[in-house]
Amino acid sequence: MSAVPADLTRHHGPDKDPADDGPLLSVDGLVVEYPGKRRKVPFRALKGVSLTIGAGETLGLVGESGSGKTTLGRAILGLAPVTHGTITFRGRGISHLGKRERRALGEDIQVVFQDPYTSLNPALTIDDILTEPLLVTGVSGRDARARVRELLHQVRLPADAGARLPREFSGGQRQRIAIARALSRSPRLIVCDEPVSALDLSNQARVLDLLVEIQERTSVAYLFVTHDLSVVRHISHRVAVMYHGEIVETGTAASVTGQPQHPYTQKLLLAAPVPHPARQAERRAARRELTARESASMKAGSA
Amino acid sequence: MTLLPEPGTLGGEPVIAAPASRQRLLRRLLKDPVAAVSLAILGLVVLASAAAPLLTAHDPAGSNVAHALAPAGGAHPLGTDGVGRDVLARLLYGGRTSLLGTALATAVAVLLGVPLGLVAGYFRGWFDGVASWSANLVMSVPAIILLLVVLGSVGQNTYVAMAVFGLLMAPGVFRLVRGLVNAVREELYVDAARVSGLSDGRIIRRHILRVVQAPVIIQAVQILGIGILIQSGLEFLGLGSSGKASWGAMLNDAFGNIYTKPVLLLWPGLAIGLTVAASGLLGNALTDALFGGAAGRSRKRRSAKPVKRSVGEDRPTSLPLPRLSGDELLVVEDLKVTYPKDDGETIVVDRVGLTVRRGEVLGLVGESGSGKSQTAFAVLGLLPAEARTTARRLVFDGTELGTSDRGRTRQALRGRRIGYVPQEPMSNLDPSFRIGSQLAEPMRRHLGLSRSEAKEKALALLERVGIADPARVYTSYPHQISGGMAQRVLIAAAVSCDPDLLVADEPTTALDVTVQAEVLDLMRSLQQERRMGMILVTHDFGVVADICDRVAVMQNGRIVEAAPARDLFAAPTHPYTRMLLDSTLEDSEPRRPLGTTGTEQGADA
């Protein structure tokens, strides 16, 4: 679209910037603690987590509730306090930025949250929601609106959606709006925190396909946080498994979701029901066998 | 019949035009007769006070002892008071004092309370500590005594008194705003704004102020009313500005002449009463208009998304009724659930027929808004009062449940012979009672057990559902146990009275997969052990494959396909079922690693 200034539609191919030689994002020995109330011991949500994400790559982060996967995403976004360790983005440490520098990082790191109902301000129109990140940078109102039309087209919403309020859209449509907002400044990394777990099955598949398509076109990287192994296999180049604030296993999507090595990953995989009665019966039997083995070895260990 | 959402309307959902919300608020407010009348009264009082010089030629302070206590009529439409001042003039000019004074108080309260509340709520930290502590201190000071002290030291002045009164009301506004901000700043859209790079000031202006607005307006209207009362009280005591006409001073004068001319009490009393009542009622009406009022209808209806379809449209039932073999536990034929709306009704369950045999698990599958939960609630008789349920047959174990009778028959069966496992374990346990009493109470009622028998059975049940330390959980409160444990407790409660039928509404959706697997195992083993029939509502085909014998797929309030589970997964016949099964990602190819960036071997250790 000709009305859109070039800097709003930048694409991050493998370009020549020296900052792009290393990984896009690397997290090293990250510890996040939340202070305990009234002299209690602080709660350690992350216990020394390390990972990397390359440009244009999707790293799937799987774990159950309380595993710390959401906290990791929030720490990268600057929404959770970093106690120890470093987060490096394009060669620059970002774990202890000042407010102003952190705000400037909004250009490169964006977010899509789980709940499409609370992640959009119900009082603002879609136009207001989508122009918000653009106007911060001093883009003119007209350029911003042109960009919004383009974004709506990208996430396949009707062009006249802009004048409406979030409540007029279904969950899947709202999540597209949230994706459009994340894309508005063409970031290099989007933290996707369970973006499809609140959606119906059919919408889930469509939103995932949309995310893949956007990635192939713009080379954006995703940190894709989810509890669902089948989702993570579908979208991730690599997968990291979190358990109790630590990463217990990393590898390619095929290896982690196909031949998991860590006992917890194995348990997670066997617990996810397959939509096929005969295969699910097999999986159930395998899971029971694993549980029996586990408890037997625990008994042996305690004896 | 269109089954798949058309490509143009993503998600298949119609998008309605947006009305301007502010305009709508005023219109909604004026539709409410109470609000309209209140607004009219307040408007009239303001206008009359503002136009006082035009409405009367008399000086409100000009006394003429010769004309003291003159009757109404002639030059003095409402007569004169004890020292011969014109009552109408005093009423009109007094309105100015009262309104200005109370407006001053409200302004002070809002101007102090809102900014301080915003800053304290948004930034928290030491400022929040200091501000909250000060607010508590001011709130604990007895207002009238402080006012008397202030008036005693600065002399009698209505406006000073009202400014101090505003100061005393500010902590209320502060705490309201702070609480609202505290809640909003946790919203994901505020996080998203932060990530977008918005400055704090901008976030407050765009996202937070909007939420604060409405409650503050309501509270301001209420302070307005209270202010008039307090001010009149002070003036009645003779503590207002001397020589200034005011409603309170009029009351004072009338009180002096209560035996000679009691009607003098009427006018200021009427003015004060009407203004205060009007602002109070307006505050209530505003609350209703802004927050949907007492009805709150939209919230009650759980996940019932109306099926947009015109009434009276008649299509043949899409499925032949299953042939009855005689050992059915539950037979439902032609079940229809509708909700009234402005023009006619919305159908959420449309001619649904299903059967459940003893020892059989029926899965009701569908996406949100398909009517699956509404069907289950209709069987349980747990639909909200405004729902209209009709059915040709609704027979449980030979007994016709009837649909109009929401009370007796079903109530006797519910809990006793039909158990229910809800979706949200935590919100279905009463936080103020121990787990034990919540488990034992229904058994004492339904099974007539003694206290100790019920406890014994409850402990046995807790152990049966896999809780490691039943005695501890028995004496725990719901907040002390995990979500998975809570669901086990609810399953124990559901089977406690040995029901024949278990209705489970998305029983594992809120749980982690590993916990889900264990809970499904538990439900399966209980169901087999007791040969219960079971209706399992779910959107997850994995769960269906795990536990269900037969499956009914619902879309838009109808069952589009019903088959034994194996057949349905092997050969789905309906296009909607096929679309849903194709959307599952189970067999999708894992994505290949991104081989070229050279960042694969990072610090993953």
Summarize the structure in words:
The complex is a heterodimer of chains A (303) and B (605). Chain A has 303 residues and is α/β, with parallel strands linked by helices. Helix content of chain A is 39%, strand content 20%. Chain A has 2 domains: 6-123 and 185-260, Rossmann fold (3-Layer(aba) Sandwich); 273-303. In chain A, helix 3 packs across helix 4, helix 3 packs parallel to helix 5 (171-183) and helix 5 runs parallel beside helix 6. With 605 residues, chain B is of the alpha/beta class. In chain B, strand 8 (501-505), helix 19 (513-530) and strand 9 form a beta-alpha-beta unit. In chain B, helix 4 packs antiparallel against helix 5 (125-140), helix 7 (158-184) runs antiparallel to helix 9 (200-236) and helix 15 (435-447) packs parallel to helix 18 (483-495). The radius of gyration of chain B is 34 Å and the shape is elongated. The relative contact order of chain B is 0.08.
Structure classification of chain B: alpha/beta
According to CATH, the homologous superfamily of the largest domain in chain A is P-loop containing nucleotide triphosphate hydrolases
State the helicity of chain A in percent bands.
Answer: 25-40%
From the N-terminal CA to the C-terminal CA of chain B, the straight-line distance is 55 Å
CATH homology group of the largest domain in chain B: MetI-like
Main sheet specs of chain A: 6 strands, mixed
The overall pLDDT average of chain A reads 87
Order of helices and strands of chain A: EEEHEEHEHHHEHEHEEHHH
How much strand of chain B? 5-15%
Structural class of chain A: alpha/beta
**Any idea what the radius of gyration of chain B is?**
34 Å
Return residue spans of chain A where pLDDT drops below 50 for at least 5 consecutive residues: 1-6
- What coarse outline of chain A follows from CA principal-axis ratios? globular
Query: Helical content of chain B, roughly?
Result: 40-55%
Name the average pLDDT of chain B: 83
